[in-house]
Design brief:
Layout (H helix, E strand, L loop, with lengths): L2 H9 L14 H12 L10 E6 L2 H10 L4 H5 L2 E8 L1 H8 L10 H24 L3 E5 L6 H7 L6 E10 L13 H4 L10 H14 L10 H4 L19 H10 L6 H7 L6
Antiparallel strand pairs: 1-2, 2-4, 3-4
The structure holds flavin mononucleotide (FMN).
Flavin mononucleotide binds next to strand 3.
Length: 267
């Protein structure tokens, strides 16, 4: 095994949002999902499921449900990665057991299984020359997605993913300095300089130009964000400003309701 090639592949990851119209054949999709399936899974319960959508009308409907993202329409394949306890339900019932999904833990282990599975699939896809982009927006209107994909009770869409052949290579997005995320023995919160340094690196990429996050609560003088500066100069708008604005606004506020309706109690 060529470890350098594998590490190079991991370090060259980038999300792809422009796709060629070329279709991805069944066998390739099966190889990608099978690689995901080989990932570690909690107690070997295998609680991840992939729902592959290739039908154009259904992909377009998914795009509409996922914030009208153009790359969902463009990519020939959409995969909904789901936390799935329904399969275990069927297996357990065949032996006369009823599973317990009352606690947050049962949702969390299924969601973690699905997440680990999807990331191995991403690596496999990239090794095969394909590109992907996760779609968290699958949780914008989860009820409609659940209906469209006919997800039974105890199956919940954790993330979507576009899959296809990249139209052109996009650039690799810089990450935080390793020392900001790698702590030895104990957590060290003294990362201010590293965060500021990354803020500048990201501002300099120009990635945010024209994509500044509107900040409704600041514009409205929301008390919690009264110190925020909504009129920051473009060249000072970096990772911190962008990320802070993203998490300052409430998002997908009804998810716990839908997850409960899907049969996970989240106690
Ligand atoms: C769970 C998850 C959800 C995401 N949702 C979206 C999305 O809805 N639309 C999108 O264009 N990118 C989405 N992304 C992609 C991220 O924006 C991207 O991974 C991040 O900016 C880092 O860029 P890179 O993947 O090119 O390194 C998502 C990523 C993750 C992990």
């Amino acid at each position: 095994m060529n470890s350098t090639a594998i590490l190079d592949l991991l370090h060259s990851h980038r999300s792809i949002r422009k796709y060629k119209p070329d279709l991805v054949d069944d066998e390739t999709i099966r190889r990608v999902v099978a690689a995901g399936q080989s990932a570690a899974t909690s107690s070997n319960l295998q609680m991840g499921t992939a729902v592959v959508v290739r039908n154009r009308d259904r992909r377009w409907e998914l795009a509409r449900l996922c914030g009208d993202q153009e790359h969902i329409r463009e990519a020939p394949v959409f995969i909904a990665w789901c936390a799935d306890r329904s399969r275990l339900d069927r297996a357990s019932l065949s032996r006369g057991y009823e599973q317990n999904t009352e606690y947050l833990e049962s949702f969390l282990v299924a969601a973690v299984d699905a997440a680990i599975m999807m990331q191995s699939a991403v690596t496999a896809a990239e090794a095969l020359g394909l590109g992907t982009c996760y779609i968290g927006a699958i949780r914008n209107d989860p009820v409609a997605v659940i209906e469209l994909l006919e997800l039974p009770q105890r199956v919940f869409p954790i993330a979507g993913m576009t899959l296809g052949y990249p139209r052109h290579p996009s650039r690799v997005k810089p990450r935080l300095d390793l020392d900001a995320v790698l702590h030895w023995e104990r957590y060290d919160p003294a990362d201010h300089e590293l965060l500021e340094q990354y803020d500048r690196v990201m501002a300099d990429t120009g990635i945010y130009r024209g994509r500044e996050q509107p900040l409704r609560s600041v514009a409205q003088g929301n008390d919690r964000n009264r110190d925020a500066d909504a009129s920051i100069a473009t060249d000072l708008y970096g990772w911190i400003e962008h990320s802070a604005r993203r998490i300052a606004e409430p998002k997908r506020t009804r998810l716990s309701e839908v997850i409960r309706r899907q049969g996970f109690d989240l106690k």
